[in-house]
TrEMBL record:
Signal peptide residue numbers: none
Domain Nudix hydrolase, chain residue ranges per copy: 25-187
Residue ranges of coiled coil: none
Protein name: Nudix hydrolase domain-containing protein
Length: 214
């Protein structure tokens, strides 16, 4: 009999053949919702980053574009690339501090954003899809130093600052970003943040209500 290559179930689960690809004109993006699970002053807060791109300054959750047409080839690569290159979790100092991330959930097609004309024009200048974005969501726990020693390189990374925040402060930062960023996108991001926080709270209630197996 001819030999055949065996692949794990996760490959087929994540493969775009079972998970439909984004419609034409839309871009797929992965959101990282990283919640601080230390017992210190930032307990329960989530990570916000400041991004500078094309003259725009905006605060929001870490995001990473997905380039491969097959999710399994890109989803975990995008996640680690965001943590290491965009947020600065790399290098000797980070290795000594040993921050730990636990992935609690991965939700596909969590939200759909349709661009207005101004945002479409902006995306066209960057040679990106101009109709909108489809967001996947990774919910993660963070255990590590309270102050993340970000290793930012202004020549390589668009992210230049971060902070731990709660919902209301996060929404305020997004609102302030609308002064230099696209207002309709800022409004969408504020609503999206609320939706993500609610999803996280629902998951936490579900997990804590389940009987322990140990």
């Amino acid at each position: 009999m001819p030999s055949r290559k065996l692949s794990s179930f996760s490959y087929y689960f994540l493969n775009k053949r079972l998970h439909p690809s984004a419609p034409a004109g839309f871009r797929a993006s992965l959101i990282l919702f990283i919640v601080n699970h230390n017992s210190g002053r930032n307990a329960g807060k989530f990570l916000f980053v400041r991004e500078i791109s094309g003259g725009y300054v905006s605060w929001g959750l870490p995001k990473e574009g997905l380039e491969s047409p097959i999710v399994v080839d890109d989803i975990f690569t995008a996640l680690t690339r965001n943590l290491e290159e965009e947020l600065g979790f790399r290098g000797m100092k980070i290795n000594e501090l040993k921050p730990i991330f636990y992935q609690k959930a991965l939700l596909f097609d969590f939200a759909l954003q349709k661009y207005d004309r101004a945002r479409s024009v902006h995306e066209a200048t960057r040679k990106r899809p101009i109709k909108g974005k489809i967001y996947h969501l990774a919910i993660m726990e963070y255990h590590g130093p309270e102050e993340i020693p970000g290793d930012f390189d202004s020549n390589k990374s668009e992210i230049d600052a971060f902070r731990w925040t709660f919902l209301e402060e996060g929404k305020k930062l997004i609102e302030e970003s609308s002064r230099t960023f696209n207002p309709s996108s800022a409004e969408f991001n504020a609503d999206l943040l609320e939706k993500i926080v609610k999803m996280h709270q629902d998951l936490e209630r579900h997990f804590t209500s389940q009987p322990s197996l140990f």
